[in-house]
Amino acid sequence: MTNLKFGPLLKRGVEEIVVEQELIKLLESGRRLRLKQGFDPSSPDIHLGHIVGLRKLRQFQELGHKVILVVGDWTARIGDPSGQSATRPMLSPQEVEANAQTYMKQFFKVVDKGKTELRWQSEWYGQFTLDEVIKLTSKFTIAQLLAREDFNKRYSSGNPISLTELLYPLLQSYDSVVVKADVEFGGTDQKFNCLLGRELQQSMGQPSQQVFLVPLLIGTDGSQKMSKSLDNHIGIDEPPQEMYGKVMSIPDHLITDYFELVTDVSDEEIVAFKEQLNTRSVNPMNLKKRLAYEIVTQFHGNQAAVKAERHFTKVFQQGEIPEDIPKYTFTAKHAQDELYEVDIAPTLLQKGLVKSNSELKRLLAQGAIELNGKKLSSNITVAQDGDILRIGKRCFVRIAIK
RNA sequence: GGAGGGGUGCCGGAGUGGUUAAUCGGAGCAGUCUGUAAAACUGCCGCCCGUUGGGCUGCGUAGGUUCGAAUCCUACCCCCUCCA
């Protein structure tokens, strides 16, 4: 039974709360809660998938609670073992520092910096002695760790698990002890680690933290969780047009999830959207345009969103030429009046618009290259200053003859 | 210390002497279509050139056998599992 007062806070965009009643008690106590959120500065970019949790943090902050951001400069070295077992290269302290800065810049686009306490793991792990490592490891058993699904899978299917990976959940748990977390936030894939934190806190004489798990956002491919390594992500630092376009490319069935998890659009409206989609009384594209607009506005402001929308309509719906086109210089071979014979290959290669000569040939063969709207069949062509070259569906170049 | 398994293109994963630039799936790209950069369908997907063709590089590394090797041999490097 959810307390009415905290209904939306504890319901929308929430997968699971352990233990919900305990959390409600904490909220009702009027105490300023310490909300722990950890991140590994191994890959610094925040995408929409992360936003789900960050928005929750923000909501808690608005009720006066405090976020403790734990920079996992030590766990980053191990790499979160969830998912693949690829061993990551060790990061240098400089890289970690740079990544952390990039991350935080993005983090504070959503979370209120003034109500956040920043902690680095190195504050405590920097001085950690073997003695303490032994004490920490003695609190856990192998069986306990093998209870974690991905460890279990890997173990029983004969795949390797390194000792350091096993250590990962322990470090994360101990963070909770150090920062005296009341609540730990994470995606559902963090459940095990967070629960372990509860046990460690208890065995070290602290009240157990509550665990607040948000759903994993499905990526633009429509099937797997959003993640940078799967390349199905929408980064919050991406330029407005890119962001808008990527949102438009999500499969239709994700539309309402996205509204629910990463926008402020009201529940009532979302219910209406669902109804409209079910009865096919709305073109999904229009809902997606609204979604894209909401999302771009959140990170780039209203103006940029309007502009991105216009760009989309113009270029992709009406097949017109966009407003801002980069100008590149092409070298002419022969000139006759205002017409020049030009080989477009060198410039395109040099600017990286085309990966290789072979690729250019392929694109030409596939009719993917247009000059002023006319398909080209050869990289040698006749052009004029100011002509527009289109490569594929997204890339436009204005020609400057030299 | 012992026994065994394995390293293939962006990823996964076939292939155990020639017809293999390497089956297949995913990702990516392009085209068609469309109400969208959705879906669907088709094609492309190492590099280079004189492109219905030709050349080069390529299956952990280095050699070797052979007319011919990802496939066989030798050495080396790396990874994993099991027993102790």
Structure description:
The chain has 402 residues and is α/β, with parallel strands linked by helices. The chain folds into 3 domains: 3-214, Rossmann fold (3-Layer(aba) Sandwich); 240-317, Tyrosyl-Transfer RNA Synthetase, CATH 1.10.240; 327-401, Structural Genomics Hypothetical 15.5 Kd Protein In mrcA-pckA Intergenic Region, Chain A (Roll). It contains 18 helices and 14 strands. The protein has helices at residues 7-11, 20-28, 48-62, 75-78, 93-107, 122-125, 130-137, 142-146, 149-156, 163-179, 191-203, 240-248, 255-262, 267-278, 284-300, 302-317, 345-350, 357-365, and strands at 16-18, 34-39, 66-71, 116-120, 183-187, 210-214, 327-330, 332-336, 339-343, 369-371, 374-375, 380-383, 388-391, 395-401. Helix 3 (48-62) links the parallel strand 2 and strand 3. It binds one RNA strand of 84 nucleotides through helix 12, helix 15, helix 16 and helix 18.
